[in-house]
Design a protein that fits this description.
Elements: H1 2-38, H2 43-46, H3 51-60, H4 70-77, H5 86-95, E1 99-102, E2 105-109, H6 114-119, H7 123-127, E3 131-137, E4 145-150, E5 155-160, E6 169-175, H8 178-187, E7 195-199
Antiparallel strand pairs: 1-2, 2-3, 3-4, 4-5, 5-6, 6-7
Helix pairs in contact: 1-3
Length: 209
Amino acid sequence: MLKTLKFLGEYLGAVCSGRFVAYDTQQNRRESRARELVSTLSPASRTRFPEPILARLLDAGWREGRQWDSLDMQTFTARFSRPFAPVPRAILSEFGGLDIGFRGRTVLFGYIDERLCLSHSLLPSLLGDMLFPLGRTNLFEDDGLGVLTDAAGHIYIDGATGHEAPRDYRLDLVAADIDTFLVRVFSGQIKPEPQSWYYSLAETASFES
């Protein structure tokens, strides 16, 4: 019996080890390919993001001059009742459809869940300005946090707080633009949010600075 258990332990160890080796090999190839792509970029693009983050963007499919498929763009923006302003459209055109991950953080552009579509109608009353959905992230170690922008390109995070109404949802201003947002997400920077708004889907939104 002990010999059998020892054999099974050794066998499972070998299988798991093989899987880890295969994963590491695949990951190393992807990173090597991304570093090669970095070298092909223009000087302006190479200095736009720190190289580790730039490599992850390239690995996810980002390229200079990238444009999201027009049909996918239309399908996404049609879910909302108002036309997208030029800056939000430009962000989606460049990053829409990309699933970017690094150091346990992810940003998925061009996807937002139905609950966040509902909350989107309340947000103008918080800010006095329109917000445009871009995707989702786990910036605050939660799943399903919405990523939004205003017409000027400031980036916000929208999601549940785990508290009861009227503080069950919160909108945070997190970055001045999309580049700063991506650097914050994937560099692990910890910064206080300049401003936060609490609200509830069930009650009138309340503001807290």
